[in-house]
């Protein structure tokens, strides 16, 4: 019976120690996870700072491109106006060419008439002919120069048009890059917020676990004190039992019973002087049975996601409850309140 009591006391002293060690390991693991999360948050903050600097640089480049685009638009408008002027001048020259051709026809007609009219003075006709010819040559030279200027203006307008198209394409690319940078920054900011929330949750869990560790430490100390007290009582019972084995007379037996009453402090029935040692041994066993520790209670199952305790359920029911949670596979965050699309965005955000 004494061996049974010792084994039970040893199991009582070892059980809180294992539980305490598991809790300490869990607390250390949570602290390591918190440090890792802080490192990740710092790295993402640095990357976010770099992306913000890059975004500002892209915005400056976008403003420069916009300025250049506006300048090109102004140049294009001025070129277009000049082109319109040249077109008007070209039309005027074309009309002048038509008039020159008409003058040529008139000149030919005059020559034909002069050949027919012998009485008319030839000197006046020659002077008039030379003047018309000179005017025709000047008009042709002017027309050629105007055509050359028109071709140059057209080529310049085509160059400006191509530069304008290139500027539009470059502006579109810069706008797309800015939008991508903004979306990436938004995702990183969301991840930083989620990491901050996770770190806050981890801190709360660590504080709760530290409180539990303190409570379990106090319970352990109380159990150790109770264990020492029980060992002392067992030693007292052993001494009483030894003294009862040595004493053989009824008077000595009654005296040992009074000693047992004084040492243990438990109520003992009055015994007569003619009781034998076997009756005393039965009383000792009853006293030992009365100081046995209570049986261990049935363990309460706890959900590993929401930390909710469920007494009186089976392992299968607990597994069904845990599977009903919507948990992120990367950060183990409970996302029951999120919609499916928001939950998918959260999960895909870890892969970036």
From TrEMBL:
Give the coiled coil ranges. 20-184
Q: What's in the keyword line of the UniProt record?
A: Coiled coil
Q: Which domain of life is it from?
A: Eukaryota
- The protein in question is named Calcium binding and coiled-coil domain 2
Phylogenetic lineage: Eukaryota, Metazoa, Chordata, Craniata, Vertebrata
UniProt lists the gene as calcoco2
